[in-house]
User: Fold these one by one.
Assistant:
Number 1:
Amino acid sequence: MTKSIEFTNPLVNGIHARPAAEIENRTTPFCCQISLLNISKGTKADAKSVLSLVGADVAVGDECQLVFDGTDEQPAFEAMKAFIEGEFADCDEPLECSEADVCQPLPVSLLKAEPVYVRGSIVSRGIGKGCPVVCSQVDLHKLAESVAFEENGPAEETIKKARHILCQQIEQAIAQAKAQGSREELSILKAHLQIASDSLFSQSLAKHSLQGNPILAIAKASDELKAPMLKSQSSYMRERALDIDDLCARLASLVVGKPLQQPVTLVKESILVADNLTPSEFLALDKRWLKGIVLAQAGQTSHTVILARSFGIPVLTAVEAVDAFVQDAESLVLDGLCGCLIRDPNEKVEQFYLLEHHKHLAKTSLLTAYASSKGQSKDGRALSLYANIAVGLEASSAFERGAEGIGLFRTEMLFMDRDDAPSEEQQYDVYREVIEAAAGKTVIIRTLDIGGDKPLPYLEMPEEENPFLGYRAVRMYPQYQHMIESQIRALLRASRHGEVNIMIPMVACMEEVEWIHQLCQQCEAQLTAEGRVTGCWRLGIMVEVPSARYLLEKAAGLIDFISIGSNDLTQYFMACDRGNRQVGALYDSFHPGFIAFLAEIAKTAKTAGIELGICGEMASDKRALPLLLAMGFDEISLSSPNIIQRRADLAQLEYASCCKLLDEVCGLASLDEVKAKIDQFWQQQDHPEILSEQLVVQCHAIDKAGVIKQLTDNLEVHGRAENAVAVEQAIWDREAIFATSLGFGVAVPHCKSAAVNHNSISIAHLEQPIVWNEADGETVSTVIMLTISSHDDEGTHMSIFSKLARKLMHREFRDALMNNALGREQTVSLLKGVLYEQVA
């Protein structure tokens, strides 16, 4: 009797190659026929074929049904029911996308530079400049007409051999990506291997090869396989058609026995322009010279775009008539921040992007001061910032990005994508490399966190109704004790190269602590008996289960540290599945009850003498930083690109004010109140004086727009404005009302805006006089810019303006102010003497 499972697809990106591969892997072992029906769209797929599943065009929210028909339909039904209900929602995740507003107007200073430009959609952020390189695409149908083949030749056998070689090439690329720790590349290559190995791919090629021309067969198979994707309402699914293009072009190249076109060779800084670019074509480019890409067809989730982001290469798409625009151009600027492509930039455009570059360098330079320092608050309270890593090769990069240690080395990657568990020796080599890279810094290595929600193919893990609350992590260690002993032995052996901190996941009761402690002792005794040397090692646990809070005092003699797994602890404390959109509002670590519980755990740990750390989303969140400092955390562990910025944020905080905030937050009633209180706290942290030496600049701008841009950029660099472009616009809005030159070679542009964080007086000493008022040709050599927050109700704006206007009437003051040899300190002192009493 036929059985079925009905479900609503929860995956944001729909059922594309990765989740389709999960379904295929789960269904293939069963003999019965298993079909996926997309009830919302009226499509049907073979659940044992990745391409068939992708072709069903299952988008988020679509109503679906799995149908089982055959001899073993009952066990198949039970296995897939457990998968759909317990794991399916977590087999994919939303892809990172650019947050730029592609409809935003260009900055005033750029528009005034009169660039020759076209607009485009930003899919990878950044700015690049280079000569245009136009890349044409291969048309397989035209290629089929130009290559002669015997009508009755073995086209199917030719394609089969080429496909076998293609799969081998992809497998080799996967091995290389693993060795290099290239996660984005690895994920895409695995998806390509699934497609190349798919039965539907093979069947389509075989069907069309009957005509005798293997290239034509590949072209027709490509069209057939892409058709349902291109018809999809989901942009993500439409973009998967390019992966078919990529694989079919590579397959055709293998059949022909040579590249289908001359490879693109970059010999100088270049902007690549193409209708489309496949992932393999992108990977073949010399990234040293690739400064940007313009694509006619690509979206946020294109695999090529994802790769470009990982390499930091800006990408624009949907640029109208781009081929005609770049024709005969000598140079292009691809602006992946404003969303425009500029050809042959003039002097003023060059100035704009030079100032953009200087702003980026200045912001980076300010953070560089925190790259090698230790994390501590403004009043000297220590809080170390560690990095999360998933593969050993990430360790060196993490330390280069300012990590004070490794707070979470997830070892699951060592055990995944294999036919069996890694050997003790293989693990030892990886752990040793990380310890040696740390050069004495703390390294916390989490033992295998695997189970029903993250199965390994070589373990016989049971199917579970709710795997997140089931047989996982430390709970399955006794059954697989030999494998866990191998990992612990490898960790203990690595300790001879530096201290190893062994962290056990998902601990819920004292019996588990005692068992794992005894196992570590036994492994060390075995190694000693074998004559192997071990060094210093410590034992810790992850606190992810609320019950762990109540074992800390008892476990203090057996463990040295704990790390809060904020993601799991939040969902278990709030009793909500973080993958369930219907209860998504409950999954937030800033609920006042959870913060109070976290503070209770921290107090218990500190009282028991246990070192305290935290990882997960909360550790990366700026909002949480003052709360974690107040609770007494010793370290937080986050992704390495965020470390330097968080260390800079930490340096603004004072321990006493953070403790006061924590008390206030715990007394609040709602999530919104907590977030509002914390946001208010951050706004009050920095009260810079309205006059400061950092606001005095030597200005090399060649026009008024350049002066205003340099001064507003400087506000953003020093945190006095969130967005320089918004302040710049407010200044120009004021300029449109009346001229701000006061005569005597001085201009006082000004604005009152919500984009201004702190009232500021900026001063620019110009290298050469510039025209300020085009109408009368009036020039200025000194600019004093007033930027006042819209929250200021004290009349500061007009008070300063009127005082300056009166004072500038005096020649002695003007001469002193306009002296280009006047240093920053003297400039500030001169203005303070005139204005301070007025603006205090």
Number 2:
Amino acid sequence: MEESSAEPPDSSGTQSNVPHLAVKDVSLMLESQKTEDSSSSVSRAEDDSTLLNAAPHRSTTEDNSKSDSSNAEGKSKSSGLCFTDGKRRIDYILVYRKSSTQIEKREMFERNIRAEGLHMEKEASLTNSDVIFLKLHAPWDVLCRYAELMNIRMPFRRKIFYKHRRHKFMSRMEKRINKFRGFLPRKPMKFTASLPDLEEGESFTAPFSRSRIHHFIIHNKETFFNNATRSRIVHHILQRVKYEEGKNKMGLNRLLNNNSYEAAFPLHEGSYHSKNPVRTHGAENHRHLLYECWAWWGVWYKYQPLDLIRKYFGEKIGLYFAWLGWYTGMLFPAALVGLLVFLYGLFTLEHCQVSKEICEATDIAMCPICDQYCPYLRLSDSCIYAKVTHLFDNGATVFFAVFMAVWATVFLEFWKRRRAVLAYDWDLVDWEEEEEEIRPQFEAKYSKKERMNPISGKPEPYQAFTDKYSRLVVSASGIFFMILVVIAAVFGIVIYRVITVSTFAAFGWALIRNNSQVATTGTAVCINFCVIMLLNVLYEKVALLLTNLEQPRTESEWENSFTLKMFLFQFVNLNSSTFYIAFFLGRFTGRPGAYLRLINRWKLEECHPSGCLIDLCLQMGIIMVLKQTWNNVIELGSPILQNWWTRRRLRKDHGLNAKSAFPQWERDFNLQPMNEYGLFDEYLEMILQFGFTTIFVAAFPLAPLLALLNNIIEIRLDAYKFVTQWRRPLPSQAKDIGIWYGILEGIGILAVITNAFVIAVTSDFIPRLVYAYKYGPCAGQGRAGEGCMMGYVNASLSIFRVSDFEGRSLPKTNGSELFGEAVEYCRYRDYREPPDSAEPYSYTLQFWHVLAARLAFIIVFEHMVFAIKTLIAYLIPDLPKDLRDRMRREKYLIQEMMYEAELERLQKEKNERRRRGKGQHKEWP
């Protein structure tokens, strides 16, 4: 589970680390300070290698740090993390095949790489002579130069004003960690020795500057820039190196697209396994530590080490796991309340008057639910379904719907606060995304048309207004067509349900024959699930086609467009049949003797005698369980099987153990690359689950509990996949979860509307309420209890004369096998006049009362919930008070530093003038 769920969102920092304090270019104000003053205000820090390779109880002296650092270099040399000299660290790997035809482009690209100052070394693959690994290393001067250009923030001065709070925070964390020791030693230990990055959090950070390098805390040039930062710098360089003469013939991405290079990735920091127990010897590297304290299935109940995830995989992936953990933590109260609603229905089941009346109605004959083959039914045969319906449709349903609408708002508002804390702690407050380069496809399409970029002042390809919007119209038409395909698939499922209900009613097996409607619903849901999974494959190809047709200018525009299409397609595909069951099933069937028919042939499907909610519960339960199980199996099983097959092939062809005998670059190359669309699949899966959890939650209170159980598995599954089965993705920065937040807000609004309609239209909450206050025994008394519901079932069923049946609807049996004599009158769910009245089968006054109450409930419910959501959003500030205080305190300290620096400068000038004055006085004759 995510660590942030354990404390309020406005806590002083993340629980896995002490926060980084971001400062706006403070180093500009400290230029006049002396190196001695800067270095004397800080204490020595242990580098990453020291913390990772030392025993659990480590010394912080400089000698021990150097010794452990040399041990780390020895391990790096032996594990394939360095060049052949054993000193220069491998920061990036490029892979190409000698048989590739793009030799000239690749050679020029590599010459320009050398010109940028990067060191290169080539090595042939041990398993394929055609594959060549190009190892890249960035020396100190290159790292400094590009760190300054990229405005990478680095620690430059120790903080002392939060020391007291930090010690309180760390002591609290030590007690908690020692309580749930898993990867730590048996003996209680200092928490700072278990995770390697806490010392960084004690420093101010500022954009790196070579001219003020003496202000930064540099104990070891080899570890000053961590591995993730080094890889990001090298990737930045590779994206701007030319491979041909021309203003736009540059960038590693283009070379990957034209197959000049087969792969490009940073290396993992060694193996995630170790021969030595981590409890006694400590973790050997960050990957090993992540596996032991995060990705290993045995630590499913522990907090996520977010700062370590961020350092190893970058802020973008760190924010995904922070959001996933926050969502999972927030599901706890939702799952608890949903379970209580379900238990409330279970405990009040024996006192439910409606269920009692249905179970005791052995003499009431219900009209057949299909033509000819469906027999008459006793109302008491629906006893079990009526009881199951009460578990989900009871007095607590409305409260739970309101609670979930408020929960969704609280979840999003507190996530904004949590994100603000993380952005501040991770130095992302002042980070702005760089101006993206133009996509090669856009550039090739519109290279003949150029205009001046208003930001950079350089000419760039230009897409005309008419061309852009004509493409958008075609793309929107494609989206509309695919939505029609979904509707056609739902229509096919409807036809299946209409046909098979008669087939199951004539089935030879009594169990199926007696439960024909439930069997129809169950098989239809399974078929619908298969159709959903098949259409998802088609949607991905169509979304790619339409997005490329639009010709987005940059990668972020392409990603946002593709995300919206895929979400819309999959959301409609997943929920269309659920919307049909919730709002259309049994609503437009007509009445016995005057049924509405499909293509003038098939009678539309009716609800079960106990109501339509049982069908909606079955739909949601089966789809949610099957889809989540399928996703987890495919998500983890696919890379595991592919990696297993690769290892098996290598052992068979070369007689080597691919896991231990090969260098790190070879082992990483044999792993699976990260998904083509990055974190898209992970976000999409969780967003669709969020929709399922909130949109129809009034009909299925156990949805949050199922989501919670799945997410507890999902966190470790994703962690295991990232750490063990995938190549290390490029660490990249991001300030938030991007377009997904807007989608979450839209789902929250849709959830309020759909839950209002589910309660008003699908459930029997409103008809029961109208009966209790207007038509029941307690009418006019202003109260509504179970005693006031006596006679409700009889009042909600209309009477039909069997002789009025159409010829094709008349059942083959007359009901004598159930009631001992032929049935003359049967009952059906509706509010209509009896056949002997002045206006037979017309709507009764109770029908109009119920309809008016439903419309009034929808309006009142929506306005009330939206008002509560707006009030909550207003009352919860986006920034925690503690964070605002820290930012103000920091601003105050910056002013103090400026004042002290100015005083020091003035004092220095005064002393210089005084020294010069004394010198001139001595020279005076």
Number 3:
Amino acid sequence: MTQSFADRHIGPDGAGFAHILAEIGIASAEDLVAAALPAGILDTYPPAAGTDPLAGLPPAASEHEVLAELAALAATDKVATSMIGLGYYDTLTPPVLVRNLLENPAWYTAYTPYQPEISQGRLEALLNFQTMVTDLTGMDVANASMLDEATAAAEAMTLMHRAGRGRGTRLVVDSDLFPQTRTVLTTRAEPLGIEIVEADLAGDGLPGGEFFGVLVQVPGASGRVVDWTGVIAQAHERGALVAAGADLLALTLITPPGEQGADICFGTTQRFGVPMGFGGPHAGYLAVRTAQARQLPGRLVGVSKDADGTLAYRLALQTREQHIRREKATSNICTAQVLLAIVAGMYACYHGANGLRAIARRVHGHAEQLAAALGQALVHDRYFDTVLARVPGHAESVVAKAAARGINLRLVDDDHVAVACDEATTGDHIAAVLDAFGVAPAEPACADIADRTSEFLTHPVFQRYHTETAMVRYLRALSDKDIALDRSMIPLGSCTMKLNATAEMEPITWPGFARLHPYAPATDAPGLRRVIDDLERWLAEITGYDSVSLQPNAGSQGEYAGLLAIRRYHLDRGDTGRDTCLIPSSAHGTNAASAAMAGLRVEVVKCRANGDVDLDDLRGKIADHADRLACIMITYPSTHGVYEHEIAELCALVHDAGGQVYVDGANLNALVGLARPGRFGGDVSHLNLHKTFCIPHGGGGPGVGPVAVRSHLAPYLPGDPLVTDSHAVSAANYGSASILPITWAYIRMMGADGLRRATLTAIASANYLARRLGEFYPVLYTGAGDMVAHECILDLREITKRTGVTVDDVAKRLADYGFHAPTMSFPVAGTLMVEPTESEDLAELDEFADAMIAIRGEIDRVAAGEWPVEDSPLRNAPHTAACLVADWDHPYSREVAVYPHGLAHTRAKVWPAVRRIDGAFGDRNLVCTCPPLDAYTDR
């Protein structure tokens, strides 16, 4: 019998699932649902004939059938030559990076490097990215990527606002800013009380009055290149900071903003080998002066050392992260764009400084050919890749003629057309464009735009890997230093590291999806638009909501969009005083950060000893805030891994007080096919497609965070970012559109029954691990019948108190057993949160449980005095191959150190690249670019 895709996706087979149920004392799937979930929120299970709430989903199809369907859809998309620009450019991704990085599960299934000892490869790759950005922009410190250019600009705005306290609430923005960036800035500014003042800074200079910041673009949306040195100096004289949106390829030739005096640089690295993908995903960037380094939002890779003094990398300044600082976080960003940042960084490594300069000169040379032929129609005489032509009354005709030749130009207005050149532009393209303008070729004046004198990308990492042999080996060497999902179960509670099937991943590099410009004519993308329309409909059906927007390009952005919808709904009804957001103490940190960004005041609701929201405290908070209540944000099942049975009453209490209910969809994988938040009380939810719906984490991004709402909130969903008042939250209308086929394929291959099986298996597997491990590590929170949802929290606090062994020790020791650690100390300090997902089979679940039980045995030996905790295999973990051949003076053997299960154990050995890393040393000595060679040798 041929196996279905669901059989391939779901780990336990029939016998394995039966064994799991028997272990937890459950007779059937129906009994599992009845035991775990509150009856009041359930759809009928199993669904009776004609009553399936997911009946609108298509029937399950095979992998080959779905790939054929997607190929047919991609074939309907018109892959025109894009010369639209506005921050999106065609690029030639080196095939070595496509095959060995973008399509390699060792890279795309990796998790955020919170366990740095087993993440050295992706951390080094991100350090390359940061070094590339700082070198090209002339800044001191860059973060490890942002979501896109527009959101990076918004983060620059809020950074300047924080740093410039007392300088008022006005931000001056140059009129030649990308329009989508201006829209996202407007969205972010309004709830924070920031006033945006637009001005032609190159022509008119700075406006009067007080302002905290200035924001410019290099080159501008029109293609104009301006030397901003004078404006920056004037802004500084008036006490304001300056942020510049900068094209990194242009900066290989022109003086970077950092050398012109700018305080902040932001932008995108899309044209460094990352396909346009109808809008994303792409890695934005944000770079600052050293003075702003500790206020920099997003993640930051830093250099430190391990227990042996070996150079090692880790995430620096983690205490800035939103899950720790909540409403006081520097940002609500949870997902970066790590996979795409690594592609961009490796593109720079592969080409090096000379290669990037050559590409930039070729791009500029094509723009010069256009400019020479346009003559008096040329608007600006200094440009990099984009020329603006004045053709009074003929703009639409020129664009139409070019489109007939398979080329998309940008219609600016009735009298102006912009033409952007890129790495893929050829002489034939230039000839066709000139024909559309009706002008003859002319000899370019060849005025040299290059005025950059400083060197860049001088570190050896940008000089060693220019051959394919060298690059293949470098990528392999880096990935060997990591534990990703292709090597081991990653049992991360709250993060859902499940299978990212190859059939789901394959279409994302197809030209019909990957080479579409987000602002191309709608008629160019009927296939991808069909994928988008289907997904919006399917996700609405799965969640029980009425409308869905796919624009948010991270879960954090989905949260923000949903809260903005609530805020605007209240304002439109005249409820201007509703500014309070209630958030349980157990909630994800992004909830509070998003609420603060949306202009809401956060009030924390207590939880009971069993982990449930304290309804008595909730009633008191509602009474205290009365007419000020805007909403409550709850996660269901809860962040404590439990189905709270009073969820319907909680929703009713808030609704009766005039508030809205935001159900955080982070744990939707424990509901799909069984219960729908839009039907049991939710008004709005965001979903994490990179968790429940199989988009891979990619080392900390990409992600997609659609927002789903009931009909009364639908008018307040984000709109087209090219429309000023659209309340857009990202730079492209459909966010990271090119990875949406992953989720489309997953739902299409699973079908309704497969999705339900996945949910049931995730719940059963979590309860199985809770039962197997509960006698060794107490399970902190359980629901009725001692059941958990899709994850469980193991409480080590008493163990730590008695023995000194910490969650860090257990996490690091798991690497010696070949496993990635569970989530540490979230949502409760001193605990481990375990989520097995439906993708792990019974053998892997047992391997993990056996490892955790063996570690408990090692803890007992510490407790018995056999090993001092300070010199135990737990505290010294992880153990490297190098430490084995060094002097050995420990009370345990080398074999116990690295083969704790014994040499006969069949699990493949994972060798951590470094020993335990000294995070405090790295924070005290903040280094966030590639260290010099002697740092690797002086040990």
Number 4:
Amino acid sequence: MIGVAFQTLRARWVSFLGTVVALVLGVAQVAAMGLLLTTAFDLPDRPVERFAGAPAVVVPDSPNWDPAQHDLGIRSPQAARGLSPELRDKVAATGETVVDRAFYAQLSDGPKDQVGHPWAVARFGGYRLTSGAAPTGDDQIVVPSDQARTGAKVTVLTASAVRTYTVSGTVAPVGYEDAVFFSDQEAARLSPRIDALAALGPPAAVKAAAGDQADVLTGADRHKADASEAEDRETLDNTITLVPVMASVAGTTAVFVVASTFAFAVVQRRREVALLRAVGATPRQVRKMVRNEALLVGGVSSAAGVVLGLFGAQLLADMLISMGVSPSWFTITPSLHWTVLAPLAGAFLVGLLVSVGGAAAAAGRAGAVQPIEALREAAVDDTGVTPGRALLGGAALVGGLGWTAWIATGSPVTVLSPTVYVVSLMVPVLAAAILAPMAVGPLTRLLMWPWRNSAGPTALLVRQSALTSRRRTAATVAPVLLTVGLAFSLLAATDSLGAARDSGLQHQVTAPYALAPDGTPGISTEVVDRVARVPGVKIAAPLLTTIYEKDEDRYDENDGMVVDTAALKRAMNLEVVAGSLDDLNDDSMAVADLWHLDVGSTQTLLMADGSTVRLKVAAVYKALRGEDVAYLPPRFARTAQYARDGLARRAYITLDPGTDRAAAEAAIRKAVAGADATFLTRDELVASEAAYARHLNEVRQRSTALIIMLFCFIAILNTLLMATADRRRDLAVLRTSGATPRQVLRFFVAESLLVSAIGVVLALAAGAANLAGLWGALYQLFGATPIVVPYTVVLGVTVVSALLAVVGTVLPVGAALRARAVQLIGARE
């Protein structure tokens, strides 16, 4: 039957054109997403930067630590602790050894990612003095020449102080970092941790001295000690997080649309199948012919889609770069590397499987009928629902409602995970698409009811056309349903989650004022101390640290917040579910309920500075995932600088009763002046933090929605073009019955609007199910919160979908109307 399939494709290539377009675009989308994902995991090759002039670099050895399996910014226990002085002395015995320390140090008007180093290590990174001299005193620094001039007095922010230094010299800027260089003694005071050693002795001797206590990097491996190694991974994190979500949602949408389009193309050719059965073709031969057609169409279309995806991936990457998701250097380069070949091969196979699978269902149904039934089915569309379709529809209905109920009651935290929740939103939408053929009849009668007594024949013709061709109507409804349903669910979920988080933060923070960083990564302890000295003012500034737990050969980390207990109770309203915050002391902690620890139990913890402590659980509080931290006593403040940068991400301020509010506010503003910290009210803090969190969430979900809508818009236009182009006989009957071209056009436009309306109704039903599940989940997590729907955007998507449906109808009808009625009949026959 391969020859018959080939001849059929040659003769009916116009009928398959829509299928080819859908398949090419679907495969291109899958290929582009796959390329983005594999490229994101393959970091770019960079030359050695900070230690290019050192023969060997000694760094903490972390053999069981994979940064990709941990949160960004988390150091391994060995890296947090740093190299020991004893190891430094051993390496120094092999030859000249220079200590490197990397810590937060920023000029008051300098870049946010500025870093401090001891001057002795500058020469290895290509730094050369352009003016002045090296820093010799504790009050001297060297900065890039574009930051300040030699002899200038500048304010430098560090984790522990805000201090004025004299610029003793300047260096030419380098492209890989913005550094501030201190004297070796001052650098050791600001950051006691030894991050690395630049060893100039024989590499073999250095390795022998280091033994198994540290890792010795030579050659190209020295780049592992550069900050850009971690920064590259960090800048790609959003891409690595977002692309799988986009790929799964957009890929599923593409597969569904392509499969539906191919099945619809086969259904359109029932007359050919009927004739083949009448002249003696067996059901097996019919199925084989259709499978061969699918293989031919799928092979050619998938190959074209792979090529389009290869060159279109960079356009998608550019879109992510423009939205601030991916770094500017993120590029897709065609090559024979596995990161390129693997996703392209996978996309090609997906195209073949989708085309064959999409054709198989319709081919099996056509091949199963008797010849006489095939002739009858070729003339009249079967409006009945097969047992298989009814079973599938029932399963879809139960699955969609069951999934919604599970989200609402069984696993409400799912809505807080974009990776999982965005994919879960598709379940009710796809269930509605499966139920579409069964819903066409009731919805057609309902939507056409207002026009039941209209004078003209158009309303009656539209109604009966939809009722007698339910399979065709359902096929054209599907892309409208997917477009509006996914846009409605995604955008409404995004806005509702943002509103719920705003409400939760507003409830949790009880302090009337706060400090937030202004152009810096955090707030130094000196600024906190300045505010604390203001009469009548109390301040809580939690310092982020890391707590490690060893699980066999790997480490698990948890966040800890170092904060004064009394200040914590004044500033925040933690929902304690066991124990009491009043029981917190220097030997206890408060943990989140997600840690599953009992009040009174004692836990052995490894801290970032290498110390091991035993703390008692004094209180357990309710927390959301991502906000589940342990609150630790102030004696662990030193560990914060080892774990992170020693800065407070925010500080909460309360006033003692009777304090003059205006005087206190003025004193606080004076205390933070010149420290790059902003004094805010609680409402201003909530608004700023909500805007930042909402931005990250919106970028992820709205970019996914954009990709899906672009594809679905094309699918709407494509499907309506296919459906209308195949109805030349209907058009001819209308013309020979006396209908004018305007009346014919009005009929087809009205029918396309009915199709759009059915799709929108089903989309709103699926969206309502999603929002019902979301409301139930948010109620359990945050209490009563509003559901926010961006009506303007959803209405815009709906209008565009309807316009595309009309365009997809008007174009082929307008072209057909130029022919005579007898020509139309002849073409159809």
